[in-house]
Every structure is written in structure tokens, then in C-alpha cells.
């Protein structure tokens, strides 16, 4: 299949937008925008996302053994764009965060969050599939979600 055509087809599936965050052993925070996030299991509580092998965030997740998931609100499009850029811990400079059990940073202003311990990693072509066990969670704000569809942001209604 033509990768551009396939990417366009995958983009026809509307998704929420999340930011996956972690920290390294020196205390630097890393983050990336992800829309491949999904629930896996309620018992035990497991979630998953796909990550490209060249991501600057992959090694810190593997080394720390944890990651967090911030589910973005509709007004967090700029934050989504900033975390979607290539880069390391400098992307998190000035970003308001808090932590839960694992110490992985969670973004302020989210509409829901999950704090996860790395459960397993699976091969997934040019990506890896990371499974996390949810050890803490919350839903601090009632707001509309940030959505992504057909290569651009979208909203409910």
C-alpha cells in the first residue's frame, strides 16, 4: 500500500488527543502528542499507545518504567502542537504540570489523566506498542475534548 494513502485513510478515524509524558533518571521531563491512545483492559487496568522507534520520549519511558497520559481539552490545541514537535526535555519548559504516584508529569488543564507503570512492549512495524498499567487517575475538569480528524483539529458539534 502507498503510505501516504494509508496515512490519509487512518486520519479518517476521529480520535481524542493525548500527551504522553515521562521523566528520565536525571529528572528531565519528556512529552509527546499521541492520538493512538486506547484502553486495553479493565482488570487489570491497562492502556496502550504506539510510539515511533526514533522518538526522544521512548528511552526515558523505558528507563523510568512509567508514563502518564493527559487527555487534552479543546482549548489545549497550542499545547498539543508544542508537544507534537520533535525534541527532548526543552519542550516541557514553562509547561504547568503536576505528578501522581509514578512521578511522571501530567499537564494542568486536562480533562482526564492516567498515571501508568510500563506493563509490556510489543513490536508494531515501524512503531512499538507500549502497554501501561494504570496506577492512578483523575478527571479534574468538565470541558469539551480536543479531537483530531482528517489531519486537523475538530470539535464536538
Q: Round the Cα radius of gyration to an integer and report it.
A: 15 Å
Strand order of the largest sheet: 3-2-6-9-10-5-4
Strand content: 35-45%
Q: Count the DSSP helices.
A: 3
Reported by name, the CATH topology is Pnp Oxidase, Chain A
Top-tier CATH class: Mainly Beta
Q: Share of helix among residues?
A: 10-25%
CATH superfamily: Electron Transport, Fmn-binding Protein, Chain A
Distance N to C terminus: 34 Å
Total number of distinct structural domains: 1
Shape: globular
On the 0-100 scale, what is the average pLDDT? Answer: 94
Low-confidence stretches: none
Strand tally is 12
N to C succession of SSEs: HEEEEEHEHEEEEEE
Name given to the CATH architecture = Roll
| Class by SSE composition | mainly beta
Largest sheet: 7 strands, antiparallel
